[in-house]
From TrEMBL:
Protein name per its UniProtKB record: Metal dependent phosphohydrolase
SUPFAM superfamilies recorded: HD-domain/PDEase-like
Presence of keyword Membrane: no
Source organism per UniProt: Desulfovibrio ferrophilus
InterPro entries: HD/PDEase_dom, HD_GYP_dom
Molecular-function annotations in GO: hydrolase activity
Pfam families (UniProt xref): HD_5 (PF13487)
Alphabetized UniProt keyword annotations: Hydrolase
Span of domain HD-GYP: 149-335
PANTHER family for this protein: CYCLIC DI-GMP PHOSPHODIESTERASE PA4108 (PTHR43155:SF2), CYCLIC DI-GMP PHOSPHODIESTERASE PA4108-RELATED (PTHR43155)
CDD domains: HDc
Length: 335
C-alpha cells in the first residue's frame, strides 16, 4: 500500500483506489453523524488534488453533514487506505456494507469477515440466546451471500485462520472457514444456496456446547480429572440442546455438533459411532486440524504440514477423502 500524500498528480488519478477508498452513501450513512470515525477527504477534480475535508473526531454541524452527503453522492468523498484498520473495525459492526463497497479488495474483505465473525461468535458463546444469535446469523448470511457468488473466495478466509493462542471463538471461526473450503472440495457444485447456508451455520457453530463448559476446565493446563473429562465429553449434547432451543433443527447442524468428535473406529465421543455423515466427517477433520495448529493450554501449536500429515495417517479415525484434500492444499499452499 502506498503512503498517503496530500495531493495527487493528474497522471495517477486512475490509480486513486491504491491509496484511498471512494466511499458510497451507504458507507457514509453508517458513520456517526456528528463525528466521523476517520479522516474524510475530498477530490478536487479541476486541480487533481485530494484534500482533507474533515479530521477524525471533529464535530460536524448539520450544514456540514448535508454538504458531505451531497459530495458523497457525487463520488467525491474518500477515506485513506492507511486508515484501513479503523475502517475495517467500523465496517465489521455493519457487515453487510462489504457487499456494497466496491473498492474493498478480496483480502481486505476476508480480514473484515475474520474480525467481525470472531467477535460475534465470542458474544454468542458467552450468551447463547436468541437476540445474540440473530446478530451472528445475519453476519453469517452476509458471508454466505458473498462467498456464494464465487466460492473460491473461501480461500481468502482460510489464509487468515487464527494462529497463536487458542480461544473458543477463534477456533470456531477457523473450523467454519476451513470446513466450508473442504465442503466445496468434497461436494463441488452439488448443493444449492439453502444447503450452503445451513452448512455454514453448522460449521461455524459446531462447538457451541463448549461455551457451557466452565472456563477453568477449558483452560486447564494439567490433565483433566475423570469428572472434568466427563463434563467436556458432554459438550456436543449441550450444543445440540442449545441448537434445538434456538430452532436450529436441520440435519446439518446436528451432524456437525454431534459428530465433530466422533471417529470412524468408534473411539470418539459422545456416542462412539463408527458411521459418520459426510458433513460430520468434514467437521471432524476441520475441528481437529484447527485445534492442532494453535497453542492450547495443554499442548503447543503444531506446524500446519505436520498437523495435516498426522490426520492423513490416521486412516482409521478420519475420512481419507477429506484429509487428502487438506494435505494436498497444505503441501501446495493452494490457498
Amino acid at each position: 500500500m502506498c503512503a498517503m500524500k496530500n495531493t495527487l498528480k493528474s497522471s495517477i488519478i486512475d490509480n486513486l483506489d491504491e491509496e484511498y477508498y471512494q466511499i458510497s452513501t451507504d458507507i457514509l450513512s453508517s458513520f456517526p453523524k456528528f463525528r466521523p470515525p476517520l479522516d474524510l477527504f475530498i477530490l478536487k477534480e479541476e486541480t487533481a488534488q485530494i484534500l482533507l475535508l474533515k479530521k477524525k473526531g471533529d464535530r460536524m454541524d448539520k450544514d456540514e453533514q448535508e454538504r458531505v452527503a451531497e459530495l458523497c453522492k457525487e463520488g467525491n468523498i474518500f477515506v485513506a487506505r492507511s486508515d484501513h484498520a479503523v475502517y475495517s473495525k467500523h465496517i465489521a459492526k455493519q457487515l453487510d456494507l462489504v457487499l456494497v463497497d466496491e473498492n474493498l479488495k478480496e483480502g481486505e474483505i476476508a480480514e473484515i469477515f475474520c474480525y467481525a465473525l470472531t467477535d460475534r461468535i465470542e458474544e454468542f458463546m458467552e450468551q447463547p440466546v436468541k437476540a445474540v444469535f440473530t446478530k451472528l446469523y445475519n453476519d453469517l448470511m452476509v458471508l454466505t451471500e458473498y462467498v456464494w457468488e464465487d466460492q473460491n473466495r473461501v480461500k481468502s478466509l482460510v489464509r487468515r485462520l487464527h494462529t497463536g493462542e487458542h480461544s473458543l471463538a477463534k477456533h470456531s471461526f477457523n473450523t467454519g472457514a476451513l470446513g466450508l473450503w473442504l465442503f466445496g472440495k468434497v461436494f463441488p457444485g452439488g448443493f444449492n444456496r439453502r444447503v450452503y447456508d445451513k452448512t455454514a451455520l453448522a460449521l461455524f457453530l459446531h462447538d457451541m456446547g463448549m461455551g457451557k463448559i466452565p472456563a477453568f476446565i477449558r483452560d486447564k493446563e494439567k490433565p483433566l480429572t475423570q469428572d472434568e473429562r466427563t463434563k467436556v465429553n458432554m459438550h456436543p449434547l449441550l450444543g445440540s440442546k442449545i441448537a434445538l432451543k434456538l430452532g436450529l433443527k436441520f440435519d446439518e447442524m446436528q451432524h456437525c455438533i454431534m459428530e465433530h468428535h466422533e471417529r470412524l473406529d468408534g473411539t470418539g465421543y459422545p456416542n462412539k459411532v463408527k458411521e459418520m455423515s459426510p458433513l460430520g466427517s468434514i467437521c471432524a477433520v476441520a475441528d481437529s486440524y484447527c485445534a492442532m495448529i494453535t497453542k492450547r493450554p495443554y499442548a503447543e501449536a503444531m506446524e500446519p504440514l505436520a498437523a495435516a500429515k498426522e490426520l492423513g495417517q490416521s486412516t482409521r479415525a478420519y475420512s481419507t477423502k477429506v484429509t487428502k484434500f487438506l494435505l494436498e492444499a497444505v503441501v501446495s499452499e493452494r490457498w
